[in-house]
């Protein structure tokens, strides 16, 4: 059962990386400004809350 938890966390952060790379490449283009930066901040904030919750419950320990 623990393996599935690690696999799920990997998928979550792999999807995060897939969203960050294209966003970082178009951030300086015209039309992508503070609104885009705020949307990515919300996205990363939700991921950070999920990671903090998993950490607090002790789900990130290997033993």
From TrEMBL:
Xref: InterPro entries: NADH_UbQ/plastoQ_OxRdtase_su3, NDAH_ubi_oxred_su3_sf
Q: Quick check: keyword NAD in the entry? A: yes
Q: What EC number(s) would the UniProt record show?
A: 7.1.1.-
What topology in the membrane does the UniProt record assign? Multi-pass membrane protein
Reactions accelerated catalytically:
a quinone + NADH + 5 H(+)(in) = a quinol + NAD(+) + 4 H(+)(out)
Q: Where are the transmembrane segments?
A: 7-26, 32-55
Sorted UniProt keywords: Membrane, NAD, Quinone, Transmembrane, Transmembrane helix, Transport
Tell me where on the tree of life, at the top rank, the source sits.
Bacteria
Locations listed in the record:
Cell membrane; Membrane
In the record, the note on similarity to other proteins reads:
Belongs to the complex I subunit 3 family.
Q: What does this protein do?
A: NDH-1 shuttles electrons from NADH, via FMN and iron-sulfur (Fe-S) centers, to quinones in the respiratory chain.
UniProt protein name: NADH-quinone oxidoreductase subunit
* Gene source species: Angustibacter aerolatus
At the highest ranks, the source species' classification is: Bacteria, Bacillati, Actinomycetota, Actinomycetes, Kineosporiales
